[in-house]
Amino acid sequence: MDLSQFGWQVRHYVRRAGLAFAVAVMVSPAVLFFLWMLSLAFKTEVDNAAYPPVFIPDRLTFANFESVFKASPFFQYFINTVIVSGGATALALLLGVPAGYGISRANAKGLAVGVLIARITPGLSYLIPLFILFQFVGLTGTLWPLVIIHLVITLPIVVWVMIGFFDTLPAQLEEAAIMDGCSEWQAFRYIALPLSRPGIVVSAILSVIFSWNNFIFGVVLAGRETRTLPVAVYNVLSFDQLSWGPLAAAGLLVTLPVLILTVFVQRDIVAGMTAGGVKN
Amino acid sequence: MSGSPAGRALDATPAMHETHHRRYLRFAWPALAVSLAVILFPWLFTLFMSVQDWKVGQDHAFTGLENYLLLARDQRFREAILHTLWFTLLAVLLPVVFGTAAAVIFHQRFPLRGFFRGIFMMPMMATPVAIAVVWTMMFNPQIGVLNYLLSLVGIAPQMWVFHQDTVIPSLVLVEVWQWTPLVMLIVLGGLSALPTEPYESAIIDGAGWWQMFRHITYPLVLPFIIVAAIVRGIDALKAFDTIFVISQGGPGTASETINMYLYLQAFAFYKVGFASAVVVVFFVLILALTLVLLWMRERTKWT
What is the DSSP letter of B38? Predict the structure, then answer.
């Protein structure tokens, strides 16, 4: 009796240890990579160029970050990125939340497929015609082309997540309101919209992150003044192949807000990403 | 008598529901208008440009299918298609295998699971350009950390992205690191929707965990794995940022994918007419692959 109890316990602990080991193996590529990125950003140029690589440096430095801010108007690029991803997300919410509501309540499968087509189209294919158009209209040199083209990223995300959200939101309350004489718009504005806050938060987070991360639109459309952060990082690379510290520091500055957001709101991201992935 | 109002109400309900339903589409009109402007206009304009001889800053002239014929004869484009397909095959298979394994582990209960899941997801959410510059440094053959790690386990130093034979597998390594989490999330979504009864009866019948995975979990989760493969396939075909930053399609043209070739034609050579033809062919390729995978998904439903 005691012996079998003991055997069961041993098996239990072996199982726990196996699971812990598996989890450690799974997260280690991400953990090691980002630790290495941190270490490159905070080490001196001498340590970064050493072989074998320096894993535990004698001293840390902020010089890499200083040189990033000295070499380029990094703060300006930060503001640009905030305006572009914030503007494109705000516009996408304004258009996409009602659209998601309408498509969900009308059960319009065809329009939902339209959203998917936007998802599978390569970004470059929007760029050529819009590049010509923006040149023709004379918008180059402003942030407007970037805000407009980022809608290609943000609008499908918002519409898609909101369709999934409103599909799970029962329509009875709105129907009752319409019975009582509300218009569809009022039913949406005063009943469905206040209830849809969680969906809006998820779609806004995903939309901001993917717009923030976008590189391809910026590299083609942005001028010196209108660069976004990913383009700025790329420029550090192409000018300064060999100074690794500033390069890693620039990369870290760009992606740190996203990484922090990811760990804090991972539950919401999971909800949004699986709604986007699983439902097609 | 008493039945007729009820009968009419029953008749009226579906019809009322119809109009009721369709009226909701008005909510989508503004978004539809903007989508037409930002998505449909580029499409029509691309088709128009693809039958023109058009370089930026010059006059353009209708040339019919000339661009497409040029493309069909272009050896470099054919190689780009092969590079893309090879890259895509690896960048779908490996993340699907690792991501499914990770999903099975994350489906277990353990402390701090949400936190670890957040860490695991970081590569997928991180800014691609930022991680690409770090990978570029890690791939450095002389002082990169990857060759040092290989030397610890006695493997000879590699050229990574600086040799034509290893460049695509190296880029796939980045892609696997970055996108395995997305596969994990999709498959995890499938796992959490699984019924518990088959497992209970399997345990009663004395099944081992491998038998349970093979005969219960795997078939039930397969549709989700295929969705993950579709999403992964589309994204891998379109991969741009990491390739552009890390290898620029090189060495030579060894890692030039369709997307890189397209970028070069449009924004380095400014041959927008020719590049538009590339876009059309590229889109047809993506669509075809998506349909094939969707067809596979339908088949798994039937068997």
Answer: I
Is the Cα torsion angle A197, A202, A205, A207 positive or negative in sign?
Answer: negative
Most distant CA pair in chain B, distance: 93
User: What are the backbone dihedrals phi and psi of residue B52, each rounded to the nearest 5 degrees, phi first?
Assistant: -120, 150
Whether the CB-CB separation of B41 and A129 falls below 8 Å is answered with yes
**B14 preceded by a cis bond (ω within 30 of 0):** no
- Using only C-alpha atoms, chain A has a radius of gyration, in whole angstroms, of 24
Provide ipTM, 2 decimals.
0.89
Interchain contact, A263 vs B115, CB within 8 Å: yes
CB A144 within 8 A of CB A91: no
Q: Measured between beta carbons, which residues in chain A are less than 8 angstroms from residue B56?
A: 132, 135
The alpha-carbon gap from A92 to the nearest alpha carbon of chain B, in Å, equals 8
CA distance B136 to B144: 9
Mutation for B interface: A36, A265, A266, most B CBs within 10 A: A266
Residues 6+ apart with CB under 8 A from B62: B51, B52
CA dist., res. A17 & res. A23, Å (int): 10
Query: B218 is written with which tokens?
Result: 């795997």
Q: In whole angstroms, give the CA distance from residue A194 to residue A184.
A: 15
**Euclidean distance between CA atoms B281 and A248, whole angstroms:** 37
Structure confidence at residue A40 (pLDDT): 93
Q: Enter the pTM of the model.
A: 0.88
Best of A64, A128, A255 to disrupt the B interface by mutation (most B CBs within 10 Å)? A128
Please, what is the Cα angle at A132 between A130 and A138, to 5 degrees? 95
**pLDDT at position B10:** 41
How many residue pairs bridge chain A and chain B with CB atoms within 8 Å of each other? 277
pLDDT in tens, A161-199: 898 889 888 888 888 888 888 888 898 999 899 998 888
CA-nearest of B245, B122, B193, B230 to A33 is B122
- For residue B41, what are the β-bridge partners? none
Chain B CB within 8 Å of residue A193 CB: no
List chain B residues with CB under 8 Å of A258. 125-127
DSSP structure class, residue B27:
G
The residue type found at A181 is: G
